[in-house]
Sequence to fold (313 residues):
Amino acid sequence: MLKKIILADHYGFCMGVKRAIQIAEETNDEKDADVTILKEIVHNKSVVERFRADGIGQKMSVEEIDSGTMIVSAHGASPEVFKQAEERGVSVIDATCPLVTRIHDIVDKLAERDYRILHFGDHHHDETLGVIGHATKEQLTVVPDVETLMKLPEDMPEKLALTSQTTAQASEFAEAELAAKKRWPQIKIFNTICNATNQRQKAIMNLAPKVDLTLVVGSLTSANSLRLASMAEALCGRAYLIDSEADIDESWFTTENSDKKLTVGITAGASTPDFLIEGVVDRLLQISNESAELVRPQKRSRTNKLALQDECH
Ligand code: SF4
Fold:
């Protein structure tokens, strides 16, 4: 039933996620107690549960935190959140990914110079909420897709800019950029999609057309995992977003023709720990009675694991 298992050239933990987890671990080790993560440190169920099990609090808003230390996640937060924490006497450890901070800096500068900013991103994503806080409502408009961009007024100021969420789909942003330039030739483009997102999207575009089915390891809360799953579905025809090997249904690998053996592709969102991906690989090998050929990317080592990944079991 399973002939080959191929891992994408780029998958799993990115620099910003590793860094945020390390900051949260170190903060928890240094402070005896009263450490609270604002929202989810990264959008992965196992990682979030692991921190909860370690006794680190988690609150969805700064108003719910009255004391101690608050950790701002990899997605960042708006300046208002930092101000509120200070007013409440809560100290802040900032684990915002430097590539998200880069967008904050760009938006700060554009806002200072009176630019009208169109930000290509998901309205409700934590990263977008942080970016929005760096400009006024009149200055910044969130544009979730090209259709919305096309509905904006033709008449726009001379000072106009387009930025993007770090995890936006590269092809959709390219479409938005083209449409925006056509409508408003004066627009300044800031492609702020991060390198990790670009690498993972390129890798799935390369892998998905070559396989019969794709498994994307990641949580439903992870925007970049959802995007990888929808890209894989479009390119390969069959893709499943799974949190771990426990979500695998063996019937997915059953074929009408018993002689036909399937090739399965695997990728994972930027917030998925290696041990979850390795669990999926091990489960697939077990389903194939250890007969499937396993193809790993040459540059990525299986031993590249954070302590967290071993402890998460
Ligand atoms: S996906 Fe990109 S922006 Fe987000 S944490 Fe990872 S490296 Fe940073």
